[in-house]
Write a structure and sequence with these properties.
By secondary structure, the chain is mainly alpha-helical. It is 73% helix and 2% strand. The protein contains 20 helices and four strands. The model has no long low-confidence stretch (mean pLDDT 88).
């Protein structure tokens, strides 16, 4: 019967449905039990995220659409969602103790993280411009609040305002681009737009104008230069637990969305958008490498580091084939693990029960906390791309795909900016191992933080021993975008 609801048709979206219901249930529960139940809500959020991941793993990752065609499930979305859920789990786990220490022990934190995660999961499965925009705004609204979560400090309030104002501008440009595309293509559905572009050459130029505005909105989300201006200020001003979330998850989701948009409805226009993405990649690598050289605050340094990493990932997008997207997925996976480990250390940087963020505060860490110093050094060497650590392979596959596609200049520029970026990573290692010892940090009693650091360090150190499964998973996921 027309209009009859069939649950089986919505099974591809079951993980999102469960996460949405769990988020709303925890919001209601938190309203009743108040802030004294924050720890309970956090643990409930961890269980909810874990169950969502199990539901996702148990699903068939073959291509399927929900009624209306606005939501698509495939292996590309499946892997990305699994990465998003892993990042959300790590953030909430590491934040439980931090919220108590900073006296921002409010139940809304894990709920907002879950709503942001829900938006990210919907983003990577978007198959329509409208579902793309709604999912992106669901994520953004939660992140605006989280950036200003420490409302008693001017820095956090400033971070929230800057992110909100600039985010609203980028959202408006994205919506304007979507309206232009709809006006000329006559549809917001990705499959229909792709079909119109193949059949009607005359609409390509005006649609390209709309695509430029869409790319501006998405470039803001991944902090690509010149739309990166919010990143260092928000990273520094937001509570460190929130900065950890910003660094780990939204950029992975936004990059996956960018890939789906470019290789879905606009695959036929690859030569046109390739030039725009090339400018974003080159600018991001250069600014990310050089702007970080003079930073003394480690959170600002990580902000510029993330900008350069997104620049490297964009090289794989420019290659515009299955291998290029596979290399991007591998890079994002390795980037997430490395960043999680580094922020586990940053979250533990406390002296006299106060958070410290200066690079100089790490002085002599090798003598006071040798395990943390060696794990941090391994992660920083990996971020710099030093072989045989995991970060080296992430960059290696990106550059190999670029060379194979004939983008020699981009590959050389990527190597050169990696060398420049290595300076500020190695500078932190020098401070930890060779500078005069600073006053020791407070004892780190966060079991989750130590677990994340251990797993991240173990991953980057042992990746070379068993790389093929991870590489195969990343490259196999990319094939879903190129199945005709």
């Amino acid at each position: 019967m027309q209009g009859e609801f069939e649950f089986s048709a919505w099974v591809p979206a079951l993980p999102e449905i469960f996460l949405a219901l769990a988020s709303m249930a925890l919001l209601v529960a938190g309203a009743f039990i108040g802030n004294k139940g924050t720890r309970v809500v956090c643990y409930a959020a961890l269980w909810s995220i874990a169950v969502t991941a199990l539901i996702l793993i148990g699903r068939d990752w073959g291509r399927s659409l929900v009624p209306g065609g606005m939501f698509v499930m495939d292996s590309f979305a499946g892997l990305t969602k699994l990465m998003i859920l892993a990042g959300l789990f790590a953030v909430v786990a590491m934040s439980i103790r931090y919220l108590h220490q900073e006296q921002i022990n409010r139940f809304e934190f894990p709920v907002l993280v879950m709503f942001a995660g829900l938006g990210m999961m919907l983003m990577v499965s978007a198959n329509d411009m409208l579902s793309l925009y709604v999912a992106l705004e669901l994520q953004s609204l939660a992140l605006y609040v989280l950036a200003a979560f420490h409302r008693d400090t001017a820095y956090s309030a400033e971070a929230g305002i800057k992110y909100f104002v600039l985010g609203a501008i980028s959202s408006g440009m994205l919506l304007f681009g979507i309206s232009l595309i709809y006006g000329f293509a006559g549809s917001t559905n990705f499959d229909m737009i792709a079909h119109r572009l193949e059949d009607m050459e005359a609409i390509r130029l005006p649609i390209l104008v709309g695509l430029v505005f869409v790319l501006v909105g998405l470039a803001f989300k991944i902090s690509a230069v010149p739309f990166h201006m919010w990143t260092p200020d928000v990273y520094q001003g937001a509570p460190t637990a929130v900065t950890t979330l910003f660094a780990l998850v939204p950029k992975v989701a936004a990059m996956a969305l960018l890939i789906r948009v470019l290789f879905g409805p606009f695959a036929a226009m690859a030569p046109d958008w390739g030039q725009i993405v090339t400018l974003l990649a080159v600018a991001s690598m250069i600014v990310g490498a050089f702007a970080a050289l003079g930073q003394e605050n480690i959170k600002r340094l990580m902000a510029f580091s993330s900008i350069s990493h997104m620049g490297y990932a964009l090289i794989g997008v420019i290659v515009a084939d299955e291998g290029g997207v596979g290399s991007v997925m591998l890079y994002l996976l390795i980037y997430m693990v490395m960043t999680a480990g580094v922020f586990a250390v940053i979250l533990s940087m406390r002296r006299d029960n106060l958070a410290v963020e200066s690079i100089g505060d790490l002085a002599g860490l090798a003598r006071t906390r040798p395990f943390v110093a060696f794990a941090m050094a391994a992660l920083l060497f990996s971020m710099a791309g030093v072989p045989p650590l995991a970060g080296f392979f992430g960059k290696f596959f990106i550059f190999v795909e670029a060379v194979d596609a004939g983008y020699y200049v981009l590959a050389v520029l990527g190597v050169l900016t990696s060398v420049v970026a290595a300076y500020y990573y190695l500078r932190i290692v020098k401070v930890m191992f060779f500078d005069e010892s600073a006053e020791p940090f407070d004892p780190n009693k966060s079991l989750s933080g130590r677990a994340v650091l251990f797993v991240a360090a173990l991953f980057v150190l042992t990746f070379i021993a068993w790389p093929q499964p991870v590489i195969s998973i990343a490259y196999d996921a990319s094939k879903a975008l190129f199945i005709q």
